[in-house]
Specification:
The complex is a heterodimer of chains A (179) and B (147). Chain A has a single domain, classed as Thiol Ester Dehydrase, Chain A (Roll). Chain A contains four helices and six strands. In chain A, strands 1, 2, 3, 4, 5 and 6 form a six-stranded antiparallel β-sheet that branches. The radius of gyration of chain B is 17 Å and the shape is elongated. With 147 residues, chain B is α+β, with helices and mostly antiparallel strands. Chain B has a five-stranded antiparallel β-sheet with strand order 1-3-4-5-2, with helices on one face. Chain B contains three helices and five strands. Chain B has a single domain, classed as Hotdog Thioesterase (Thiol Ester Dehydrase, Chain A, Roll), CATH 3.10.129.10. Classes of the chains: A alpha+beta (179), B alpha+beta (147). The interface between A and B is large, with 46 and 48 residues.
C-alpha cells in the first residue's frame, strides 16, 4: 500500500559544496512573535505533566524566582513562526532548514544547551543562529545525508543572554530501495 | 490530583544517589499536544505517512517534549528550586505514539564552582524498545536548608 502526504516539508536544496559556503555566517536576528506567556507555559507543562510550582504557582514563583518562569524546554518555541500571518511570509528561523543540501527530510540527533538566566512572563525572545559544521555524506540506519551542527544564542528584550544551544541534526533521504 | 513536592539541598546529595524514576505514557493525543504546545508542526510529529517516509514507524515526540520530560525527572527529584544550568542529550532513537516513557538517573558529581552549588546527573530516557535518549544535566541548587 503506498502512502502519501500532502506536500514535502519545505527545505532548501543544493550540494554539500553549497552548504559549506554558509559555514560560520550568522543569520539575521529573529524576534519572536509571541511574548513569554503563562497560557503556553501551562499547555506545555500539561503535555509533560510537570507540576513544578515555578510554572503554576505565583506565590511560590514570586518568592523563589521573582515571578513565574518559563520551562527551559520551551526555549525553541518562543521564536517559532506562525503557520500563517497576514503580512509576513512563513519562514524557518532554524538556519539548519535553510541550508542547501540534497536530502528531503531531517531528524534531530543531539542538543546541548547552557542556560544563563530564566525567561519571565512578558519577555520577548530573540535568537541568532549559525551553521558551525556540516559533515561529508554519511550513511546511517535511517538513510543517506549530512550532519549539520548549528549554534544559537537566545536573548531577552534587554539583550541579556538567556541560553546558548548547539544542535546537530541529520539531513537525509531514504534510498529508493529502502523507501 | 496534587503531587507531593520535594526539596533537596546540595549538602544532602551524594555521588551515586539515584534520581527518582518517572514513567509517562505517550498516546497519539500527547504527540499531537506536543506539536501544538511547542508550535512545532514538522510533519514527522503529526503526519503518520510523512513519518514513515522518513523511515520512522510512527509519529514521534519532538526534542522539546523530551527536554521537558528530562527536566521534569530532574526537578521532580531535586525540587522546584533547581536551576538547570546545562542539558546535553542525544536522540539515539525516536519515541513513538504508543510508547511508554521511563526516565531514571543517577548523581555523578557534586561540586562548587564560582559560588554555585552544582550537581551533575545522568538521566536516561527509555521505552519498551530500550534506551532512546541519554542525557547529562548540571543542576544548581541551594547549598543548604535555611531556617
Amino acid at each position: 500500500m503506498s502512502e502519501t502526504f500532502n506536500e514535502p516539508f519545505p527545505l532548501a536544496y543544493g550540494t554539500y559544496e553549497d552548504a559549506v559556503k554558509l559555514l560560520n555566517k550568522p543569520g539575521e536576528k529573529v524576534v519572536s512573535e509571541f511574548s513569554v506567556n503563562w497560557e503556553m507555559i501551562k499547555i506545555y507543562c500539561s503535555m509533560v505533566e510537570d507540576g513544578n510550582p515555578s510554572y503554576w504557582d505565583e506565590e511560590y514563583a514570586n518568592k523563589q524566582w521573582g515571578g513565574i518562569v518559563a520551562p527551559s524546554g520551551l526555549l525553541l518555541t518562543w521564536p517559532m513562526s506562525l503557520q500563517w500571518h497576514p503580512q509576513k511570509e512563513r519562514k524557518h528561523y532554524f538556519i539548519a532548514m535553510t541550508i542547501p543540501l540534497p536530502g528531503d527530510t531531517i531528524i534531530n540527533v543531539a542538543t546541548n544547551t547552557e542556560f544563563h538566566r530564566h525567561l519571565y512572563l512578558g519577555d520577548r525572545v530573540s535568537v541568532v543562529d549559525e551553521l558551525i559544521d556540516v559533515s561529508e555524506e554519511k550513511k546511517t540506519r535511517l538513510g543517506v545525508g549530512h550532519f549539520l551542527t548549528t549554534k544559537a544564542q537566545f536573548f531577552n528584550q534587554r539583550d541579556q543572554l538567556i541560553a546558548v544551544q548547539t544542535n546537530s541534526l541529520f539531513r537525509y533521504y531514504v534510498p529508493e530501495e529502502e523507501s | 490530583m496534587s503531587r507531593e513536592i520535594t526539596f533537596k539541598y546540595w549538602n544532602e546529595i551524594s555521588e551515586g544517589d539515584a534520581v527518582t524514576t518517572i514513567t509517562m505514557d505517550v498516546p497519539f493525543e500527547r504527540v499531537i499536544l506536543d506539536a501544538a504546545a511547542t508550535q512545532d508542526y514538522f510533519p514527522g510529529h503529526h503526519n503518520p505517512a510523512y513519518a514513515r517516509h522518513q523511515g520512522q514507524k510512527e509519529i514521534y515526540l519532538n526534542t522539546m517534549a523530551i527536554e521537558g520530560f528530562i527536566d521534569r525527572v530532574a526537578t521532580d527529584w531535586a525540587g522546584p528550586h533547581t536551576f538547570i544550568r546545562k542539558r546535553q542529550m542525544q536522540m539515539r532513537s525516536s519515541i513513538y505514539a504508543g510508547d511508554m516513557l521511563q526516565g531514571e538517573g543517577k548523581v555523578e558529581k557534586c561540586y562548587e564552582n564560582d559560588g554555585q552549588y552544582l550537581v551533575d546527573v545522568t538521566i536516561n530516557i527509555s521505552t519498551e524498545s530500550g534506551l532512546c535518549v541519554p542525557a547529562e544535566l548540571t543542576l544548581e541548587l541551594p547549598a543548604a536548608k535555611t531556617s
